[in-house]
Amino acid sequence: MRPMTAPRFIPSFALSLSLLMAAAHPALAQDTPPADPAPEAAADAAPAPDAAPAPDAAPAPDAAPAGPGFDMGTEVGAAGEPAPGSFYIREEFGDWGLRCIALPDRADPCELYQLLLGPDGNAVAELTVYLLPPGGQAVAGATVVAPLETLLTEGVVLAVDGGAARRYEFSYCNRGGCVARIGLTEDDLATFRRGNVANVRLVPAADPSQPFDLTASLRGFTAGIGANTVYDPEAPDEAPAADPAADPATDPAADPAAAPASGG
Question: Is the pLDDT of residue 43 over 70?
Answer without folding.
Answer: no
